[in-house]
Amino acid sequence: MIRTVNLSKIFHADEIETTALENINFQVKEGEFVAIMGPSGCGKSTLLNILGLLDNPNGGQYFFNGNEISHYSERQRTDLRKGNIGFVFQNFNLIDELSVFENVELPLLALKVKSSERKARVNEILEKMNIGHRRKHFPGQLSGGQQQRVAIARAVITNPGLILADEPTGNLDSANGEQVIQLLEKLNEEKTTIVMVTHSQDHAARAHRIVNLFDGHIVNEKIERKIISIGTPRLMSL
Amino acid sequence: MIKQFFTLAIRSLLKDKIFSLINLTNLVVGFATFILLTLFIIGQFNWDTQNTKYDQIYKLQLFRDQEENAQKHSWNIPPALSRNDLLKIPEIEKVALLHDAGDNNKSGIFLSVDKRNQVLTRFGYFSDPSIFDILTFKFLEGDPKTALLQPYSIALSKSVADKLFPKGKAIGKQVYGENKVVFTVTGVYTDIPLQSSWVPSYLLSMNSFAPITQFKDFEQSYYDNSFYTYVLLKENADPASVDKKIHGALKNYQKSHYPYLRPMSHLHLNPFYDNSIYVVLALFSFIALLILVLSSINFINLQTANASTRIREIGIKKTVGFTKRNLLTQFVLESVFITMVSGVIALVVAQLFLPVFNNIVGAELFSNILTDWKIIGIVLPVSFLTGLLSGLYPAFVISAYNPIKALKQRYLQNDSNGISLKNILVTVQFSISLFLLIVSFIIFKQTDFMMHSDLGFNSKNLAYANITTNKKGSFDLIRQRLIQHPEITDACYSDYIPYVLPGGRDINWEGAPADERVFVRYYNVSYDFFSTFGIKIKEGRPFSRAFPADANKCLINETAVKVFNWKNPIGHHMRIDENDYEVIGIIRDYIFQSFHNPQEPHFYRLLNNDTVSLNGIFTVRFTQGTEKKALQIIKSEFEQTFPDDAFEFSDFQLLVLNENALRYWQIFRNISIFFAILSIIISSIGLFGLVMFFTKRKMKEIGIRKVFGFSMGSLYITMSKGFMKLLLISIVIAWPLAFYIYKTLPGAHKYPIQVNEFVVATLIILAVAVVTISYQIIKASKMNPVDVLKDE
Predict the structure, then answer these.
(1) ipTM score
(2) Per-residue confidence band for B405, with pLDDT thresholds at 50, 70 and 90
(3) Which residue in A38, A110, A127, B305 has the fewest CB atoms around it within 10 Å?
(4) How far is A50 from chain B, CA to nearest CA, in Å?
């Protein structure tokens, strides 16, 4: 599903160059659950941003579903991202002025889904995430765990083939963190590919495979358990 | 998606209520000002429109000496021309000849029902019945077809009728004019709207003119210059060709005069080919536009500042697949939404302030804005365009923001250096505010200058009254009685006085080529005219009782000497009305009518045998501070002398203040004060937004500085340095522009401009900036630096 060849990213600030990623060769197969680990500043989030089409690499190639997209324009990246990739963040990143329902509805609006269908799908996913009773509340009125469940609901509302989670449990206590990991596992069982950045060894151990980054390089890969199933490519087109 | 845009827009507005209030206030104040100014300007072009035949109505006027010489205009037309020649011109459908009843330049005439309760009424006219076919009058009582047919008929406006006949109908009743002539009321018409170039308060039938004034053969006079004429042209007639025919008819009698038809549409703003009023209106339109621009710039800054608190929303939206264009649309729509809402609120606010504004401009502009589609038709598109244009920049800035950064930061960082659009906007904003303030000061000072500057005579401590009487006798006897009182220092009698404009004649003078003539104004005055008014004698002497032969002498003014080009004017002769007058003195020029009119030659001769006759003005000078007592003395002395005549003494100063041009300037001054206050308010709002924007961008810097223990003072300098630099640039832009406006202001007498106006205005803007910056600094200093820095 995802393959990078000699991917590199350099940040320029005035006259200082910072190499965030260098010669990253990395692959994620359809239905895999991959954890990325590494110390602060090793390039985890940068890699995730590039994988999530939020940023372009400076060098190398990035194949997404077989297409080389490292040269895509912002507009092309947006189009490709829309509906195909879901994001989960450490700090949830919900819009404070929108209710739970409206936050989850957001990606469907970007896809111009009809109102009646939006309503049905949002309600369905909220029930599934066990947060339906809070649909009219605003993020400020929810606990951290509830907010992250809303964020996950938003990430999966379009049935994306890929979910990118950037330290999804970082701001949660262990109980809520466990709930989130279970949710991700459940999604993975339903054949959603997941790439998760985490600092937690325990949570990383729940993935099929752990990729360790250090100073912008992949230092080793560890297979945690067998990939349960490799289904047919199932990028949802809506 | 649109619904969601608006949900977000409304919730964002409600989230930071103070900010939203500032944002809306800025727009509402800006729009409301724009609406009121637009009303004022539209109002100026909407005069006389109550007349149904507006496009066919003309006033016949003339230029003396040459065509289109605004300084030698006259609205008076020889009556014989109107009577004998006009109706022979095929394009002319109707002609109405008019004449002042009494002298409308003076205080008016007294009307009464019972010879006791007098109503001093100005602006009455003798008129042909055809006036009702030309102009539109709405009759409440009587019939316009017959109202002015019979001699001694009077048609009253409703307000005069209400004063004379507070109870019951007026029609058929009798009215005394100056207790001397009896008229019968033949009609009552609704008051002519104030937005009319001619507002008669009553009309007398023209066929009573000759018996009342003893001017029997006026209809054959090609030389008299005291009648007015309104003309109704046939549809599609060409006024220029009619002008030629009228000139052809007059040239046998008055070769150098050019009569012309002035269309009704020009009678208010530009009756005599004088464009000065347009300069002022253009200036006001420009100011209206500037205020709109100022509000828009504020709005841009406030929106951009506010958007920086919404970058997370932008990051999320971009992440889930909203395109840059989606976001651009969202933020532009949001701006348009806010400006449209503000536009609607502004209409309501303008409506509420309309009475106040009407008061400021001394007119009744519109009574109901909210149902006036013309106004709404201007305001809504203007609000829409303002929203669209002002929304573009913030929307562009916001939507271009990198989603990764957007999700990580709480505040937009300052990543532009050098000349940014923001700096340009601040400079433009400072410049406009500064410019508006200076111009307001200039207009204020100019009006003040005209109200208080030297008129060339002493206009204070004078009382005057116009008395029409059949009693004749020596004025000197009255004067002697008056000046016995210590409160009264001098008194005079004359047919005209300063600010009451006399007529005159075109005359030939000693030493001039035989066919050369110049217009000279005549004054018939008593011995003490010059001393009473404090008019200075430049050369020679005033009239004196010590010289019995002074009845054949005259004084002229400096301008006359200049025009006649006399080296030694004393001893020269003037031939006036078949009599010969020797010049014995030259008076200094004084402001005789208005600040804006250039000087004209004047001729002063002694009143015939020093006698009080039919109609004249008494002027009395009293000592400073005794006005009340002096007026009592004057009243009782005059009541004894003229027991049968109505009169009322007024403060001469009022005559000066109510003079037309000055009245206009007073309106301009009021509007300027209004502008000045508003521009300060709008600028403060704008600066507030700007500084807020600036502080938000500098939050990280402030946080770091605080961690390292920098003082408030150093924070202050950091934050104000940039603004002060921009203010300096604004001075370079606004000062010369404001000076240019001073240079283009119309009028012959300009006040000497001083640097104070510029400095004070700049200090005010500076003070507003300092206060706003201080507020934000105090706010920022209360912030916990950890809050900003931990997000990094």
Answers:
(1) 0.78
(2) confident
(3) A127
(4) 10
Q: What does the pLDDT look like over B123-181, one tens digit per residue?
A: 899 999 999 999 999 999 999 999 999 999 999 999 999 999 998 899 999 999 888 89
Q: In chain B, which among 361-420 make CB contacts under 8 A with chain A?
A: 403-404, 407
For B296, the token pair is 């828009």
Residue of chain B minimizing CA distance to A102: B4
SS3 category, B129: coil
Q: Which string of b and e fits B270-293 if b means at least 16 CB within 10 Å? A: ebbeeebbeebbebbeebbebbbb
Dig out the tokens for B791 from the structure.
Answer: 């997000």
- Tokens for B414, please give them: 């300052």
The DSSP H or E segment spanning A150 is helix A144-156
Structural Rg of chain B based on CA atoms: 34
Q: Which residues of A touch B (CB under 8 A)?
A: 49, 52, 54-55, 74-75, 78-79, 81-83, 87, 89, 93-98, 102, 105-107, 109-112, 154
Tell me whether residues A98 and B319 touch, CB distance under 8 A: no
φ and ψ at B270, to 5 degrees? Answer: -145, 65
Average model confidence (pLDDT) for chain B?
84
Lowest mean pLDDT among B317-331, B446-460, B693-707: B693-707
Helix/strand/coil (H/E/C) assignment for every residue in B114-125: CCCCCEEECCEE
Distance of residue B347 Cα from the nearest chain A Cα, in angstroms: 30
Q: Residue A68: in which H helix or E strand, if any?
A: strand A67-68
Task: Please report where in the chains the tokens 């429109």 appear, as a residue.
Answer: B49
Q: How far apart are the C-alpha atoms of B165 and B154, rounded to whole Å?
A: 14
Q: Which of A81, A87, A97 sits opposite B15 (nearest CB)?
A: A97
Is the pLDDT at A174 greater than 50? The verdict is yes
The reply to whether the predicted model has a pTM over 0.80 is: no
Given an 8 Å threshold on Cβ–Cβ distance, is B320 in contact with A102? no
Gap between the Cα atoms of B454 and B749, Å rounded: 11
Helix (H) or strand (E) holding B296: helix B276-307
Is B16 near chain A, with CB under 8 Å? Answer: no
Rounded Cα gap, residues A94 and A89, in angstroms: 9
